[in-house]
Automatic annotation (TrEMBL):
One Pfam family, short name: Asp_protease_2
SUPFAM superfamilies, per the entry: Acid proteases
Record-level Gene Ontology MF annotations: aspartic-type endopeptidase activity
Domain of life: Eukaryota
Name of protein: Peptidase A2 domain-containing protein
Species annotation: Dreissena polymorpha
Any single biological process term in GO: proteolysis
Amino acid sequence: MKTKDNGVYIEGLIDGTAVTLLLDSGATTTLISKDTLEAIGKKTDDLREHNRTVCSVDGTPLNVQGSVELKLKVGSFTTAIDATVCDIPNIQGILGQDFMANHIQSWDIQNHKLHTLDGNTIDCVTEGTGLSVCKVLVKEKVEIPPRSFQMLPVEVKGFVPEVVFVDGIQGLQDISCRVVAGIVETQGEDVSVCVVNDFDETVSLEAGYLVGE
């Protein structure tokens, strides 16, 4: 994995074709571009019908072509992914919350590694230009049920560009609760991050609690 423009990207293979995919906790679903679909030798005729609306970060609807099941390989990690094909500019694809919830157990920020649920480890490199530090705080008190993930409303304090990359903090409240690192669009009315409760009990986070930076 590597980062470009302060975002985290996974380099791997989709159906045997080399791709670079953005890992984004702000995206609810996994997407690939129409160009990527064509690069791996598939056509829009191969797609299943997709009736849900997909929008960019500014709310603009994207032209959805359909959905398709693909084989993703990153190092020794291999899985099938269900991807929505749409016209997304300047990027081959996005791995969203569905991918992270189904496959990622933890993100070791200090050692630059992703740990998958099936025991694989994906090395990553955190590089980028123009990095600025800000803090991400819980906006209001929330409770996260055991063994679940939830999108939490947050406030971003400090230097706030239109888009920030949040390094998740693991071990919140000294228990197995973690923030999924990823890109957060800060200019909308509802800014949120994905928090995963790996514990067997409900976790409470008070307003103002630091969940990322």
